[in-house]
Amino acid sequence: MSLKNKINPTESELEILQLLWEFGPSSVRFVNDKQNENKEVGYTTTLKIMQIMADKGILIVNKEQRQHVYSSVIDESETKGNLLDGFLKKTFSGSAKKLVMQALGNHNPSKEELEEIKKLISEIENKSK
Amino acid sequence: MSLKNKINPTESELEILQLLWEFGPSSVRFVNDKQNENKEVGYTTTLKIMQIMADKGILIVNKEQRQHVYSSVIDESETKGNLLDGFLKKTFSGSAKKLVMQALGNHNPSKEELEEIKKLISEIENKSK
DNA sequence: TTCTAACTACGAAATTATTCGTAAATAAAT
DNA sequence: ATTTATTTACGAATAATTTCGTAGTTAGAA
After folding, report:
1. Is residue A26 part of a domain?
2. Which of A14, A23, A100, A124 is the mutation pick for testing B, counting most B CBs within 10 A?
3. Which member of A96, A114, A128 has the closest CB to residue B107?
4. Within a domain: residue B62?
5. Do A32 and A64 have their domain in common?
6. CB proximity A36–strand D (7 Å threshold)
7. Which chain B residues touch A126 with a CB distance below 8 Å?
8. Domain tally for chain B?
9. Which of A21, A50, A101, B28 has its C-alpha lying 20 to 30 A from B73's C-alpha?
10. pLDDT tens, B60-82?
């Protein structure tokens, strides 16, 4: 994909994407059940949004069975990268540093998390040598 | 402020807040001019949103002069922290680590940024000793 | 076969956020 | 003093997203 097709899922679209990324291709029923573990969401609401996503080309549908099976077409980390980018611009004037520092400062990361991050930093440093 | 008043500015509210945080108490005209350096925004649009924000208690207005002067009531880093929190939940299942790693991985931070982040990490590590 | 339950299709209502037009008030300029 | 420009007030139009009701269809159970 050469020219970026900047996909910006809405909030409820993202919610559904997260489930499809985690559990793979799923029926509306399955997705709706998962959503209802957290908060009440009407079945037809989930259906409608998944249909809209399919229209937009974010999902593809397999209609061979009566229970249609939906799968995500878009890549998880690419999409999250885009979302992060937008959030970064809007909230931290595009500075990853500011965001990272706010994230680290606010969230009391565990020793293990810090270790992983330090590891990642040295990897990045080594790559650019 | 004891019980969190979870303030969630919308996108255009945040845009205005950023300006008020940077430049301090300002008139609608000033804010609107700043906005128009980037993109066209109607004057009454800016006015309306700032009035709404004042209604919500996000801004306070000084009406002594004809040009009302608006100031932010909410704290910059607290608000950004809240926004980050929400974004984190929605997009990275609340894991600051995932987000930080995505941010660092995606944004080719400069050597200086990495240094600052490492410094911050050691500060956090020392604090918890 | 007939009844019932589950599913899709569809459109409209509700919600939230944003934009804009117009009127009224005030100050500044001529 | 009259005109002109700037500002606030207000409500309505627009837009985007989400929710929901209802009808029609299909599959499975009785």
Report:
1. yes
2. A100
3. A96
4. yes
5. yes
6. no
7. none
8. 2
9. A101
10. 999 999 999 999 999 998 899 88
A105 and A61 co-located in one domain = no
What CATH number is given to the structural domain containing B52? 1.10.10.10
Q: What is the largest CA-CA distance in chain A?
A: 56
- For residue B4, being part of any structural domain is answered with no
Domain containing B38: what range?
11-72
CA of A115 to C1' of D16 (A): 42
Q: Is the four-CA dihedral A74, A75, A77, A78 of positive or negative sign? A: negative
Does position A3 have pLDDT exceeding 60, yes or no? no
Which of the four pLDDT bands, split at 50, 70 and 90, describes residue A5?
Answer: low
Same domain, A65 and A34: yes
Residues A67 and A99 in one domain: no
Find out whether B117 and A101 touch, Cβ atoms under 8 Å.
yes
Contact A70, A58 (CB under 8 A): no
Instruction: Give A30 to chain B, closest Cα distance, Å.
Output: 19
Question: Does strand D come within 7 Å of the CB of A49?
Answer: yes
Place of tokens 């229209």: A55
Is the distance from CB of B60 to CB of A82 less than 8 angstroms?
Answer: no
Residues A102, A52 share a domain: no
* Geometric angle at alpha carbon A91, from A73 and A120, rounded to 5°: 65
Tell me the residue type at A16: I
| pLDDT tens digit sequence for A19-71 | 999 999 999 999 999 999 999 999 999 999 999 999 999 999 999 999 999 99
Is the Cβ pair A91, B14 closer than 8 Å?
A: yes
